Amino acid sequence: MQEPGSTSRAAVEEVGAGLQGTWLQRVTQELPLDPAPQPALPLAVVAVERYLGGGPGAAGLPRPACPQYCYDVTLADGTCQRQCYLVPPLHRLVQRGALRAGYQVRAVRCSYLYDERLLGRGFLCLEQLEVVGDRLAAATLADGTCQRQCYLVPPLHRLVQRGALRAGYQVRAVRCSYLYDERLLGRGFLCLEQLEVVGDRLAAAPGWRAPPAESRRLPLKGGRKHFLPLWNNEDPYGDLWVVEKPPGQVDVEASKLISLGHLEMSWRSRIHFHPLLVRIMHKSRLRYYGKPDKRLDVPYQAYFEVADSSGMMSMVLWNSLCPEWYNSMKVGTVLLLEQYAIKASYPFKTQATPGDSQMKRFATIEISLNFRDPPTKITVISESMVKPEWRLPEVKYRFITSVCLFWTEHGEDFWTSRWVHVIDGTSNQPFILELFATSQPDVFEHIHPSIYLL
Asked: Are residues 386 and 426 in the same domain?
């Protein structure tokens, strides 16, 4: 009888075989002209990523009524990993949740598509896939010098299912072992038996070297420069987004600053504006305005409400400044703005409600921050450097998020729950259940409309 939480021999053999495969390496190095041969072993799905498709339709064809999205799937066979293009008929696998990171698949049919713009280069197209398992069996770890694919024992699968272990997080291997494969003399793989998640910021990892910009993974088709989140367009996603910018060390000269009130009165008679010192009072969600027939590299926009002692005004962060600064601009952050632009405000925009009802609002203009025309200079001022004589308004309400709670000293002192509306057939009116995350995290995460619950 197998001990609870131990690794079954079948699972070990399956992962051991997968960790020794070289099918991806062969099929991409030999550049097959015919459909690629089918691999004998399952492949691990490392990532499923979405992006906006390219360009308008061909001449004479109607333009699509809604944006067309593409999907790239990163597969690994233990020796290497490759980014592959998922053909449109297989998109339903992603949309139904049948294909996701951590699953095992077998490439039934695939081909190699050459890019005529780059001599001898192309990518693998997945034309038919068979999902053979949903066990989250392997994790790839890196220490800045090398990386290794390791087997994750079943008791640790809950970390992945709860989102507590994901790509980009830092971990400490508390206990691990090396498992030899008796079929291959002297070869085996590392088994992770106990892990401690110590942070979600890659930049702080000792010895970690961030990949250069030119080596970042980019979408395979359409000439896009970034990926989108899998299920919406508004959340930051990918290594393009900076986690947090450090505060700047600047000497602020109050005599050279301009107030928002003075700016509102004199902006039409100025070409260049004096620096602004403001505090963020409100932050909106990102807005993605990319379109298939537009070629903007990073089509994002974010609205903020900023204030000084004279009042409050809207501020707009545009395009490539969003990945660089959006995560660092929080409610309460103090900013020094230089080389910004001023534009007339959109008249029908919904205005945020100020925390202080006595605060004056300047609604006719807005501050525009962009990477050109002119290139804006932004500096975050540490809260410890804020001086009372600047008379910056305070934020009335500040709320902690669940992400922050996870990293507090008492991070395990709260529960995760879901509200589920259920009908049992005896009435047309649903009753409501509050379900807490229990010892069945996989069941908890896969509750969705139309399923049956016992």
From this structure: no
Chain centroid, CA 285 distance in Å: 14
Task: Identify the band that residue 179 occupies on the pLDDT scale cut at 50, 70 and 90.
Answer: confident
Is 169 found in the same domain as 112?
Answer: yes
**13 located within any domain:** yes
Beta strand pairing call for 334-338 and 377-381: antiparallel
Whether residues 374 and 289 share a domain: the answer is yes
Per-residue pLDDT tens over the stretch 375-421: 899 999 998 899 989 999 988 877 776 656 655 555 455 567 788 88
Strand (E) or helix (H) holding 263: helix 260-266
Question: Within this chain, do residues 67 and 200 fall inside the same structural domain, yes or no?
Answer: yes
pLDDT tens-digit readout, 91-138:
999 988 888 877 888 888 888 887 776 666 788 899 988 888 765 556
Please report the pLDDT score of residue 191 as a whole number.
Answer: 84
Q: Helix, strand or coil for residue 141?
A: strand
419 lies in the same domain as 386: no
Asked if residues 300 and 283 have their Cβ atoms less than 8 Å apart, the reply is no
Q: Is residue 194, in this structure, part of any structural domain at all?
A: yes
Q: What is the mean pLDDT of the chain?
A: 77
Q: Do 95 and 52 belong together in one domain?
A: yes
How far apart are alpha carbons 291 and 221 in whole angstroms? 15
Enclosing domain of residue 447: 415-454
CA distance 231 to 432: 26
CA distance 145 to 130: 35
Considering the domain architecture, whether residues 71 and 165 belong to the same structural domain is answered as yes
Rounded CA separation 131/419 (Å): 31
Q: Helix H segments across 375-440? A: 402-406
Would you say residue 360 lies in a domain? yes
The more confidently predicted of residues 4 and 266 is 266
| Residues 48-103 pLDDT 10s | 899 988 654 444 455 555 558 899 998 877 667 788 999 999 999 998 888 887 78
Three-state DSSP at 106 gives: strand
Q: What is the pLDDT of residue 406?
A: 55
pTM: 0.68
Same domain, 375 and 419: no
Rounded distance between C-alpha atoms, residue 198 and residue 372, angstroms: 38
E strand segments, 69-225: 69-76, 81-86, 104-114, 122-133, 138-142, 147-152, 170-180, 188-199
Q: What is the domain count for the chain?
A: 3
Length of the chain: 454
- Here the contacts of 409-418 (C-beta below 8 Å, separation 24 or greater) are 416/162, 418/444, 418/447
Kind and range of the H or E run holding 422 = strand 417-422
214 within a domain of the structure (yes/no):
no
